[in-house]
Design a protein that fits this description.
Blueprint: H1 38-57, E1 73-78, H2 83-95, E2 99-104, H3 116-126, E3 130-135, H4 140-145, E4 151-157, H5 163-177, E5 184-188, H6 195-206, E6 210-214, E7 230-232, H7 235-238, E8 244-247, H8 263-270, H9 274-277, E9 285-287, H10 300-303, H11 311-330
Parallel strand pairs: 1-2, 1-3, 3-4, 5-6, 5-8, 6-7, 8-9
Helix pairs in contact: 1-5, 1-11, 2-11, 5-6, 5-11
C-alpha cells in the first residue's frame, strides 16, 4: 500500500478539488448498500469527501453549511441506543439547514405496546420529510418505509445492514489512501451479528477491494458462502499482508452465550495488538466502527496509535458521509 491521498485529514488547504455534484440514487429511500451500483456508491463517497473538506475549512462549525434542507424536518427515530450515530445524523441534518427532532423511543407509545405500523401512521401525521431509523429487528426499517410518506434512511437494523457506516468507512479509507480498489481488507470479529460487516462486504467488494473475514467458526453467518469472500479462523493468518484491519465489537447482546470463550481467551486468539499487527502490511491501517471493547477485540496501544489508527477519523468523517446521504434523498426526483 504505497499510494497516499492528498485529501486526508491533514491535507493542506491549498489542495483544490473539483466540487462533486449531489449524489443521485435510484430510490426514494436509503435502506442498504446491497443493490447499489458503483456509480451510486462513488457519488455518495465523492459528495461526502466534498462535505468533509467543507467542514474542515469552516472556521466556525455553527450550521448550516448548506441550505439544501432548509424548511424540511428530519426525524431521528432510534429503537436502539446509539449516541454516536444519532448525534452524527443530527449534526449532518443541521449542517444542511434542516429542523431536527429526536424521538425518545424509551418514553414513547412504542414502548407501551404501539405497533410499528401504528407508529408509521403517527409519523405520517407529523409530516416529516426524512426519517432516520434504527431498529433491533432486521427488515423493520424497510417495513416502515413502505408505510410512511417520508424518505427513510436505515441507521442500522438488527443483523441486516448499517449502510451509512460502510459509506463513512469507505470515505475514511479513500481520504487516507486515495482508493479502495485493489486493497486487501480484513474484517475481524463478530461477523455473524454485525450489520456493519454485511454493509462493508457489499460496498468494499463492489468497489474492487479483496475482503477477508476473520473470526471463530461460531461467529460466521449462515449465508457466508454466498458472500464471495475469503474466510479465516486464525487472526494471524487472516491479516497476513492486508492493507486494512477492521475490527468489530463482540455483540454479546445478540448472542446465546456459547459462541465465544471467555473475553480473556477471545483477546488472546482474536484480539488485535501490536505483535499480531506485524503480520499485516508494514503500513497497514486499523479501523473500528465503535464502540470499542478495549482489551477484548483490540488493546488501547493499538487503538490509539496516531500513525496507524483511523478510528477517530471514522467518527469525524461520519457527519460528512451522512450529509451526502441526507442531501441525496432531499434532491431525489429533482431535475
Amino acid at each position: 500500500m504505497t499510494e497516499q491521498s492528498n485529501s486526508g485529514s491533514n491535507s493542506p488547504a491549498s489542495v483544490k478539488k473539483t466540487p462533486a455534484p449531489p449524489a443521485r440514487l435510484g430510490s426514494k429511500h436509503f435502506l442498504g448498500i446491497e443493490g447499489l451500483n458503483p456509480l451510486e456508491i462513488n457519488s455518495l463517497i465523492d459528495r461526502g469527501d466534498m462535505f468533509a473538506d467543507l467542514i474542515q475549512q469552516t472556521t466556525s462549525l455553527q450550521p448550516p453549511l448548506s441550505d439544501v434542507l432548509r424548511g424540511r424536518t428530519v426525524l431521528n427515530l432510534f429503537f436502539e441506543n446509539s449516541t454516536r450515530t444519532r448525534v452524527s445524523f443530527e449534526l449532518a441534518a443541521k449542517n444542511l439547514g434542516a429542523s431536527v427532532l429526536n424521538i425518545n423511543v424509551a418514553g414513547s407509545s412504542v414502548k407501551k405496546g404501539e405497533t410499528l405500523l401504528d407508529t408509521a401512521t403517527t409519523l405520517n401525521a407529523m409530516h416529516p420529510h426524512i426519517l432516520v431509523v434504527r431498529h433491533n429487528c432486521a427488515g423493520a426499517v424497510q417495513l416502515l418505509s413502505q408505510h410512511v410518506d417520508a424518505a427513510v434512511i436505515n441507521a442500522g437494523d438488527g443483523r441486516h445492514e448499517h449502510p451509512t457506516q460502510a459509506l463513512l468507512d469507505a470515505l475514511t479509507i479513500k481520504r487516507r489512501i486515495g482508493r479502495v480498489e485493489g486493497l486487501k481488507i480484513a474484517i475481524c470479529g463478530d461477523i455473524a451479528n454485525s450489520r456493519v460487516a454485511r454493509s462493508n462486504i457489499h460496498l468494499l467488494s463492489t468497489l474492487g477491494a479483496e475482503i477477508r473475514l476473520v473470526c471463530p467458526a461460531t461467529l460466521l453467518p449462515m449465508d457466508i458462502d454466498a458472500m464471495g469472500v475469503e474466510i479465516h479462523t486464525s487472526l494471524e493468518e487472516g491479516i497476513e499482508g492486508v492493507d486494512i484491519v477492521m475490527m468489530l465489537r463482540l455483540q454479546t447482546e445478540r448472542m446465546e452465550g456459547t459462541e465465544t470463550p471467555s473475553q480473556r481467551e477471545y483477546f488472546n486468539l482474536f484480539g488485535l495488538d501490536r505483535n499480531k499487527l506485524q503480520r499485516a502490511a508494514p503500513d497497514a491501517l486499523i479501523m473500528h466502527p465503535g464502540p470499542m471493547n478495549r482489551g477484548v477485540e483490540i488493546d488501547s496501544a493499538t487503538a490509539d496509535d496516531v500513525e496507524r489508527s483511523l478510528i477517530r477519523t471514522q467518527v469525524e468523517i461520519g457527519v460528512a458521509a451522512r450529509m451526502a446521504c441526507l442531501e441525496a434523498l432531499a434532491t431525489e426526483g429533482a431535475p
